[in-house]
Amino acid sequence: MAKLPNGTPIYCLSDEAGNGGAQFCDARLQTPSEGGFVHHSRLVFPKRGGGFVPLRLRHNGSDGITLSAAGQTIRITAARFKPNKADFSGLDKQGYTARRYRGHPFYGTDNVIPDEVFVPASITLNGRPIPATQLQGLFHPVYAANPQAGNFWHTWEAYYRPDSGTVYLYASLGADGAPFGVTFVFEKDRFVRRYLWGEAV
Question: 19-39: string of b/e by CB count within 10 Å (b at 16+)?
Fold first, then answer.
């Protein structure tokens, strides 16, 4: 049993989200000044309101999307990428799987070393970029000629909470056998943390 800080992103399953598929939701403590355990907290689903402003899709291109509302603008670009096998470590005897990419865990392929993937190339909120290290190892299998055709953009969604100046950017990526969720959290225009969920995380 552990405490959840107020505003912590949570990975929620479909029946609770009410929209089909795993969805993003958010922990709101009933008594934030006193802390509280998980069972003393409640979950808020941004799609149902709860003080969140959804950022709407303004541009959907082959290599990038723009989400914006309430003075907040997120720009995401993606690229087709061929990882260098020499950058993987902890390989199995056959050299098909690995534990790390450039010294860090990687996601979306169930540890299989991919020949080619789509990756988020850049993410900015109001022109300020997320550090490139936070985008490393977020792999999405190549199913088409570009990210748009390959459904890379299908699950990206973002929400703004004006009372705290917090923006949450969420996506579900990866292969069918190794899906993962990722949420990037911004406070007052600055990136503060990345959360990851999934069977392989």
Answer: eeebbbbbbbbeeeeeebeee
Tell me how far apart the alpha carbons of residues 12 and 21 are, in angstroms, rounded to a whole number: 9
Which residues does residue 97 pair with via DSSP β-bridges, in sequence order? 112
Predicted structure pTM score = 0.80
Residues 43, 30: Cα–Cα separation, whole Å: 10
CB 70 within 8 A of CB 53: yes
From first to last of its 201 residues, what are the pLDDT tens digits of the chain?
456 677 777 766 544 444 444 456 655 544 333 333 333 356 667 777 678 899 999 888 878 999 999 999 999 999 888 999 999 999 998 889 999 999 999 999 989 998 888 899 999 999 999 999 999 999 988 766 667 666 778 888 999 999 989 999 988 888 766 888 899 999 999 999 998 887 555
**Integer Cα distance of 7 and 106 in angstroms:** 26
- In SS3 terms, 109-142 reads as CCCECCCCEEEEEEEEECCEECCHHHCCCECEEC
Residue 74's closest CA among 99, 91, 57? Answer: 57
